[in-house]
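Encode chain A's predicted structure.
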Amino acid sequence: MIYDAIIVGGGIAGLQAAIQLGRYSVHSVLVIDAGGGRSSLCRNYHNILGYPDGVSGEELREKGRRQAERLGVQFAADRVIKAEKSGELFLLSGTEGEKYTGRTLLLATGVMDRYPDIPGLVPSLGRTVYVCPDCDGYEIEARRTVLVGSGDAGAHMAFVLRERTGDLTYINHEGVPLSPENLQRLLEQNIIYLEQEVERITEEEGVIRSVILKSGDKVPADRGFIAFGNNAVHSELAEQLGIDLHKNRHIEANKRSLLTSMDRVWVAGDVAVHAEQATVAMGEGAIAGIWMHKALKKLNPKPLPPAKYDLSQSFSGSTSVNR
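Encoded structure for chain A:
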């Protein structure tokens, strides 16, 4: 089957695009989703309109998928490992050799945060341990906050978080040396700096309580952040297609339409060059869906639906129509 639109990635951006395209009622749409991803790790988004008490990424994804399926959008559980263009079509291959063909393509493959396997970390992610200061800096105001990170990447996060709390400890878990400038700045801003490996995070029902170091020392915490740097940017398919990438490997796109450097390929979500937030990903998914629809109207003109009334004589001598 040749789909009008294929969306690679079933996260926040991909689902919003699928809903937008499905509501046009004229396109065959397939979402290929490998599962997992950054949004599935977040136990509670606190900054999304309509959810003042928070909502998990899994709940958003589950509701989004059901909404898209009601609109006729199809889903395939697979990971796309190869993408190529053949004439006017895009050919995708999955991990088990499954083939997918589409007229237009949206890459919503996302980014995955890098973090070590520290016991107690994952259960508290998105609840009281965070990754995005723009999304969740509010949550640490006037609270004891422990940042677990690596080298200068962690130091730069510490400087941002220092604006929200005066009780901040930065634990350089990987022991990557800091620049002398950042080391001095930590001292000047009264940020406690520890260069030790973390043994585990103690938490109760997803609420961080303390960070236990390999030395046995315990650092009490009300809130936490992680910043290890070198996050995985899933732009491999764009690279295979020869699409322009930013220097940080995010996918470049037109700021208005989110069309990439290749015709009929769009990008949305964290893999694009933008602020990495769920709310931004939603907006980009909708924008990409709108512009994909515009392109598909030119590729596949659809006949107008039949008129309910015959208005052929309506304007001969009279402009009134009795209904």
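DSSP finds nine helices and 17 strands in the chain.
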